[in-house]
Design a protein that fits this description.
With 235 residues, the chain is mostly helical. It contains nine helices and no strands. Helix 7 runs parallel beside helix 9.
């Protein structure tokens, strides 16, 4: 029961956060906005990570695809198929399809720098008030794509727990939390996203890998070994 509460606590905190998100969105965004110069933070480090910060997740995605391909043609790699299915699909479905391919394209939320408060032309829209297909310009603030590429490393939490490789689980939690938060902070500072965009990406990148691990790893591992193995289900 205790583990179950811990597991679902981020989701319930997210539900509590949503109604107050407009206030916190403005509070955090105004912190990085220079009112006298009417611009957001111009930082070489942030510019570097904006251009290249997605590379680590892309690298893991490419490796996952290659090893997944090998698992179909090599008996040795076949036993690793469930692992690489999860790492690959978590990237393709999470940051790829759900966040960048779907929500960002249809939600119609203006970026901070596109809103009147920060020198733009559009009105501020909370995350719970989408503007489907009616934006006057491309408005892709919700959710944060860059942050999702950092939070992607949450995938190793559940794989580490399932395979009892606990250093991998702790590493996934640590790297995912730090890197995802940094990437999100960077985009807030640049006027590209609100705090709620970043937190939403974290939620997707946390719970999607859990679902994939529960469905794919258990099914494939049992299919290969013909034995029942411990489920990732939180008890």
């Amino acid at each position: 029961m205790k583990n179950k509460i811990i597991f679902w606590s981020p989701f319930f905190c997210y539900l509590i956060f949503i109604p107050i998100s407009p206030y916190l969105d403005h509070l955090t965004t105004f912190y990085f906005y220079n009112l006298s110069e009417k611009q957001f933070v111009q930082n070489p480090l942030f510019a570097f990570f904006y251009n290249y910060g997605n590379a680590p997740a892309h690298f893991i995605g490419i490796l996952s695809f290659l090893f997944l391909f090998l698992s179909f043609i090599s008996p040795f790699w076949k036993k690793f198929k469930p692992f690489f299915m999860v790492t690959f699909l978590s990237l393709v479905l999470g940051p790829g399809l759900i966040i960048n391919g779907t929500l960002k394209e249809v939600w119609g939320r203006p970026r901070p720098k596109q809103t009147i408060e920060f020198g733009g032309k559009q009105i501020f829209r909370p995350i719970y008030k989408p503007n489907f297909f009616h934006s006057i310009e491309p408005s892709k603030s919700f959710p944060s794509g860059h942050a999702s590429m950092g939070f992607y490393f949450f995938v190793f939490i559940f794989l580490g727990i399932y395979y009892k490789i606990y250093w991998l689980a702790y590493g996934g939690m640590l790297i995912g939390s730090i890197y995802g938060s940094f990437m999100g902070l960077m985009r807030i500072a640049q006027g590209g996203h609100y705090l709620s965009d970043v937190i939403t990406s974290a939620m997707i990148c946390f719970y999607l890998p859990w679902l994939l691990t529960h469905l794919l790893v258990k099914k494939n591992y049992e299919g290969i070994n013909k034995t029942s193995v411990r489920s990732i289900t939180i008890h």
